[in-house]
Specification:
Elements (H helix, E strand, L loop, with lengths): L38 E5 L12 E8 L6 E6 L4 H9 L7 E2 L11 E5 L3 E7 L1
Antiparallel strand pairs: 1-5, 2-3, 2-6, 4-5
């Protein structure tokens, strides 16, 4: 009989640490991130983005193989953390932020893994 433990053997083949979704979540109802190989990264950096004056941003997305992108608007609450929260409220999978706060020399990086949807630009 099993002792109630689940043993996971997870390997990170990247040159840096990343967060992953192993079981999905409420932000990922289709389990789009689970086992996904395709990564998407965005660097949303000041001075390009004056977040205090941007309350809505837009994410391009489409099912894998589709011809054209659709646009999904999301609320930012006029702060960098709001960008991350807004993306996760779209239910396109889980989006992570590389740094919890904006770092002027690095920017504000957001990423996700998804093999069911393709993502394009984030605009405002």
């Amino acid at each position: 009989m099993l002792d109630g433990k689940i043993i996971l053997n997870v390997t990170n083949n990247l040159a840096f640490d990343v967060q992953v979704s192993l079981f999905g979540s409420t932000s990922d109802p289709q389990a789009s991130n689970v086992g996904a190989f395709t990564q998407y990264w965005w660097d949303i950096a000041y001075p390009l983005l004056d977040i205090a004056n941007v309350s809505t941003m837009y994410l391009e997305y489409k099912p894998v193989g589709a011809a054209t992108f659709s646009i999904a608007p999301f609320n930012t609450n006029n702060n960098y953390l709001g960008i991350w929260q807004g993306l996760n409220n779209l239910n396109f999978g889980i989006f992570w932020n590389q740094f919890p706060t904006f770092i002027p020399s690095v920017g504000y990086q957001i990423y996700t893994s998804n093999d069911k949807l393709e993502f394009g630009n984030i605009s405002w």
